[in-house]
Amino acid sequence: MTDQAQSEILTNNPIGKGLDAFRASFNSVCEDRTLSCTPDALDQLAQEDIQNLTLDLLFALRNLPVIRLLRSKTSHGTLRSDLLKLISAVSSNNFDRIQPLLTAALTHNRDDALLWDQPEKLTPPTAFEKAVFDTPFRSSSASQRGIEQTHDEVDRRILEELTGRVYYDVGGFYERYFEGKTWTNNARGIYKESRAQYTEGRWSGWPEPSIQSLFFEWFMKFQDTVLSGLRRRYYTSANKVLRGSEADRKLDIFLTPADAALPDGEHDWSKYLSLENTNRILLAGYAREVFGSQPERRFVPGFTICGSMMRLWVFDRSGPYNSEKFDIHKEPERFVKVLAGSAMMSDAELGLNTFIKRDGNGTS
Fold first, then answer.
1. DSSP-derived 3-state class of residue 258
2. Among 169, 237, 284, 304, which has the highest number of CB atoms less than 10 A from its own CB?
3. Euclidean distance between CA atoms 351 and 216, whole angstroms
């Protein structure tokens, strides 16, 4: 194919708004890390953030129709083949030279050719073409079974499913789920009683830095002081593998009935009502496990906390959507009402189908 033909393809198939979801993800990560939302922030982000953003971008590019029309300069296939190789490399933690591609995507205006040159520079030439890469297919996290469900593989599938399908900063999210409920006044009363734990504009004992292990310790002490006596309780699985899944899974923090029976002291996926994590990909993976273990489940609520920034999530079977994030120190009432309200919600408000009951054997 001539350069002129390639140019005509680009002109007739512009990227347009195809990278908006990737840029929204980048902005969200930067804001969570209190960084300026410019390409310079790439030098300050952690490797895990760079890897997740890179996969966000590669999947967004792969979903553009033009990707099947542009010829590769390093193999006999299309540029889609190059992107699939890059996705595999990045998923295997090989992304040392990826920053120029991220920068090009963030600064991209109307010259699509400059952006499409980047994947080819990152993909080494191959002596043969793997034709299977050019076969249209759509795999998903549901295609992984049993021992195939490694974190890397499933997380890559989940990220592919999420790309372009997450509804960010949904207006009225908090009000929809936490205001005007039968338990709202009780949650407000719990907040008033919690004020003794809030001094000088911050929650007392908040860990600095707020690394995971210290946060877990703080959160459980906070629950014992502020949220004791509610019908549900937050737990962490720590280093224990959870029951009820084909693959080994652990959870950061989750909500389950306070009186739930624990065979051999282990929690079970079929009992989880709400999920909490610091990573949206892991949270989506946990929601996937809940849907698999609770087939009657309508939706799964959860939240992520990064530093002191909290964001509320709901996963249903069409995809996830979330609230605007907020600082738990600057909005302490909202923080407590979310935690207390979730523990007091009805089964229906937590997404359970109340028309379906399970018998003593756990059968619907």
1. coil
2. 284
3. 25
